[in-house]
């Protein structure tokens, strides 16, 4: 049977493989899976999103299901509203950080978390067998629901000490990346009494600023704006606002691993004996941090859904990915740029230190990642060549070659784009660079052949 779902939802290039006919059939399959109840529908700022949302709603209605349209919102806002407002499920129209020509569909369960891998298989089975419920004799209806944004902001604020944060009047730079956190993060900062400076704040389907994916390599403007304005903190979101990359008060950009270490250190001291879930491609310094608070860390395959669903079954406090996806279990078991921002602000207020001083207290951690464009057959050849060379390597997800606790490299095909990703950790910046250079050359030699 074919695959529709990648690492995170169904994605494709609009009008090429992600056609209106495809969306129609996919939504009939999803509505058959949901069976009944009202579905909350939201979308990101891509040029095709509004058109797709109309088709999603009318297809749900034609299958006899009601839906409420919440309009343009970040993915974590749609997810939190689905759970909190009592919907039977949610559908988010987004391709997250993919290039502008893409779009996608992400089904959300009534618990506010992306549906499980098993449920994705159920939908794929319905889709490929065309086993969906035929057009209903009683059509559903579409209404608007404008409660999602304030519900989301109230949910975030209920998890932090608002009056304490307000009293510090922190100065924050928001790089909204022309994405959907523009409708929530600015309001959140206002409601938390921050002085806010925004960049790339216009929602724009072509992501004309610095593109939809924030990485420590394309955020020079965020970094310089923090320094020039003497701000306490900078943050950049991805296109649909679930991931966040931070910048300290000296303009240094933090990897997702580093900001997760900082937040985990803070949250675990307040909540000892807790559980942390992360993927096998994030660094090992988290092991030292959990030990200090009698907590534990569990590892999953790469993918936020694996982390989210594990958090639910384990009742974990924290979940994170190395790419800036951070989950706070008391709020919702999903990556949430807005919630993560609020936690960072509380950390700053509680510690009385700057972010750079806070970072200096953490165990050293040197992690990095890179990507190489390549075709499917190249991916298979790369993995099999590396497996031949390292027969004992971990092949749970791509291939992870572990030299020792602090030195490893992992190679894995992207679940959303035609690229292969390389992740590494080492015991020093210099050794990390040497390791990456060696393996990038090795992998490129497998592709060129
Ligand atoms: Mg995203």
The Cα radius of gyration reads 21 Å
Number of strands: 18
The biggest beta sheet reads: 6 strands, mixed
Task: State the end-to-end CA separation.
Answer: 31 Å
Structurally, the number of domains stands at 3
Structural class call reads alpha/beta
Mean pLDDT reading = 95
- CATH-scheme architecture of the largest domain: 3-Layer(aba) Sandwich
Strand order of the largest sheet: 1-5-4-2-3-6
CATH class of the largest domain: Alpha Beta
What does this structure look like?
This protein has 449 residues and is of the alpha/beta class. The chain has three domains: 10-147, Alpha-D-Glucose-1,6-Bisphosphate, Chain A, domain 3, CATH 3.40.120; 159-359, Alpha-D-Glucose-1,6-Bisphosphate, subunit A, domain 3 (Alpha-D-Glucose-1,6-Bisphosphate, Chain A, domain 3, 3-Layer(aba) Sandwich); 366-448, TATA-Binding Protein, CATH 3.30.310. The chain has helices spanning 20-34, 49-62, 75-84, 117-128, 148-157, 162-168, 185-191, 220-228, 256-270, 285-292, 304-314, 337-351, 355-360, 376-389, 429-448; strands spanning 10-13, 38-43, 66-72, 89-93, 102-109, 142-144, 171-175, 195-199, 233-237, 244-247, 275-279, 296-300, 318-320, 326-328, 366-373, 399-404, 407-413, 419-426. It is globular, with a radius of gyration of 21 Å. Bound molecules: magnesium ion. Magnesium ion binds at residues 96-97, 238, 240, 242-243.
């Amino acid at each position: 049977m074919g695959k529709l779902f990648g690492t995170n939802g169904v994605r494709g290039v609009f009008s090429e493989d992600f056609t209106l006919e495809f969306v129609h059939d996919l939504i009939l399959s999803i509505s058959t899976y949901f069976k009944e109840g009202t579905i909350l529908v939201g979308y990101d700022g891509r040029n095709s999103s509004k058109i797709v949302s109309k088709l999603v709603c009318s297809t749900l209605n034609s299958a006899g299901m009601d839906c409420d349209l919440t309009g343009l919102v970040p993915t974590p806002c749609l997810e939190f509203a689905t759970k909190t407002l009592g919907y039977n499920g949610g559908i988010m129209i987004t391709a997250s950080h993919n290039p502008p020509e893409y779009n996608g569909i992400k089904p959300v369960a009534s618990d506010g978390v992306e549906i499980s891998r098993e449920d994705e298989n159920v939908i794929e089975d319905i889709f490929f067998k065309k086993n969906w419920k035929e057009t209903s004799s009683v059509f559903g209806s579409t209404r608007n629901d404008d409660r999602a944004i304030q519900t989301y902001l109230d949910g975030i604020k209920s998890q932090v000490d608002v009056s304490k944060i307000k009293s510090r009047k922190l100065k924050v730079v928001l790089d909204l990346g022309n994405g959907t956190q523009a409708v929530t993060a600015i309001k959140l900062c206002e409601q938390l009494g921050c002085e806010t400076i925004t960049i790339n704040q216009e929602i724009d389907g072509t992501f004309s600023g610095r593109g939809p994916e924030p990485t420590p390599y394309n955020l020079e403007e965020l970094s310089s704006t923090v320094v020039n304005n003497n701000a306490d903190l900078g943050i950049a979101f991805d296109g649909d606002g679930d991931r966040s990359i931070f910048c300290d008060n000296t303009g240094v950009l933090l990897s997702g691993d580093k900001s997760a270490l900082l937040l985990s250190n803070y949250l675990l001291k307040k909540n000892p004996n807790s559980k942390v879930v992360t993927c096998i491609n994030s660094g090992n310094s988290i092991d030292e941090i959990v030990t200090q608070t009698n907590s534990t860390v569990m590892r999953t395959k790469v993918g936020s859904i694996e982390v989210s669903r594990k958090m639910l079954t384990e009742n974990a406090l924290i979940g994170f990915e190395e790419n800036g996806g951070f989950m706070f279990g008391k709020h919702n078991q999903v990556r949430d740029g807005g919630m993560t921002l609020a936690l960072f602000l509380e950390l700053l207020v509680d510690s009385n230190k700057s972010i750079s001083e806070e970072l200096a207290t953490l165990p050293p951690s040197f992690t990095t990642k890179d990507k190489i464009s390549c075709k499917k057959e190249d991916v298979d050849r790369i993995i099999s060549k590396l497996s031949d060379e390292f027969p004992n390597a971990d092949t749970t997800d791509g291939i992870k070659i572990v030299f020792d606790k602090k030195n490893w490299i992992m190679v894995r095909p992207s679940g959303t784009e035609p690229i292969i990703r390389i992740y590494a950790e080492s015991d020093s910046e210099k050794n990390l660079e040497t390791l990456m250079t060696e393996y990038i050359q090795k992998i490129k030699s497998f592709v060129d052949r």
